Amino acid sequence: QSALTQPASVSGSPGQSITISCTGTSVDVGGYNDVSWYQQHPGKAPKLMIYDVSYRPSGVSDRFSGSKSGNTASLTISGLQAEDEADYYCSSLRSSSTYVFGTGTMVTVL
Amino acid sequence: EVQLLESGGDSVQPGGSLRLSCAASGFAFSNYAMNWVRQAPGKGLEWISGISGSGGSTYYADSVKGRFTISRDSSKNTLYLQMNSLRADDTALYYCAKRLAEGGPNFDYWGQGALVTVSS
Questions:
Q1: Nearest-CA distance from B120 to chain A in Å?
Q2: Which end of chain B is more exposed for a tag (fewer CB within 10 A), N or C?
Q3: What is the SS3 assignment for A30?
C-alpha cells in the first residue's frame, strides 16, 4: 500500500503562510472527504489538527485550515509561529475501510 | 481525561511473537473504533490495523495481514495487537489511537507508544 505523497520539507518565516500538499489517487484522497492532518513534534505522539478535509478539533488554532481538490489535499498554516515547527502528516481513508498516511513534511520556521 | 497506555513492547528475534496491550480510560471504550499505527525509527507513520467499537469488524494493512491480529476486551477497556512471524521491518514504535468519529482516519487521542525491536 503506497503512501500518499507530500513534499519532504516546507519552510517559512514567522507570520507567513505556508501550504503543504498531499497527493493521492481516486481510491483514497480523491474518492472520499475523509482526509486528516497530524502534527508531530520530536519524541511526541501525533496530534490531530484537521479531519474530514477541513474540520478542526476543539482546541486547534484557526491558523490551521484544510482543503481538497481532486486527488490532492492541502493544509495551510497562516501566521506561522515558531511552535509550528514540526512534522506534518496527511492521512486518508482508502477503499476497503483501510487508511493510509502521507510521507510526511518537515516544517521549518526560518 | 482520556488516557491510552500501551504496554508489551520488547525486543524479539525474527519469527517470534509479541502481544501489545493498550489500556484505555476516560471515555466509553466500547463506543469507539480503535486503531494501531506504527512508526519505524526516523520514518513516517503507518496505519496497520483497526477494529470497530463492537469488535465485530477488523481491518489490516497489507503489510501485516495474516500475521497480526487486533482485538479488544470491553470488560477490561483494553485493546490488543497480537503480532506473529515478526520481521526486522516490523521494528517500530507502536501507537494505539482512538477514532473521533465514523469515517476517516480522525484519531483524536494517542498513547505514548510501545517500542518493538525485531533483531537477531
A1: 26
A2: N
A3: helix
Instruction: Examine the pLDDT at A43 and tell me if it is beyond 70.
Output: yes
Q: Which three cell numbers stand for residue A42?
A: 520530536
8 Å CB contact of B47 and A100: yes
Query: Cell 500538499, residue?
Result: A21
Amino acid at B13: Q
d(CA A60, CA A15): 18
The answer to whether the Cβ–Cβ distance between A48 and B108 falls below 8 Å is: yes
pLDDT grade, residue A15 (50/70/90)?
very high
User: What backbone phi and psi angles, to 5 degrees, belong to B68?
Assistant: -110, 150
Closest residue, chain A, to B49 (C-alpha): A98
Share of chain A above pLDDT 70, in %: 99
Nearest-angstrom CA–CA distance, A55 and B31: 21
Residue (of A39, A8, A2) closest to A21 by Cα position: A8
